[in-house]
Amino acid sequence: MTSKTRTSFTLSGPSIELDARTLAVRGDLADIALAGKLFVPHYAQPMEMSCTDDAAVVFAAPDQGSETVGEIERGAVFMVVDMAGGWAWGFRATDHIVGYVDLKSLAQTK
User: Which CATH class is domain 45-108?
Assistant: First the structure.
């Protein structure tokens, strides 16, 4: 019987603190700006969209009953990383607050 030697390794390099409130990162997807800083299966280039309503609520989850994390006013830019089920997931361009906005409240910026 032969004994196997266990190989060990160490992690090195910078570590960033992930703040889901201001960094567009989920378990499956992240803003392309975070590539090289963290690992997720997919990255996306955010698409600039603007609010077409007088105001739109930014929710913590894709559900009108979820926690409100902010608001965007008419004309304000929301950077969309993902769209699904009538919701846009991304961040406010002004302060990077991350959340979900009803897609009906947004239009692509020209």
Answer: mainly beta
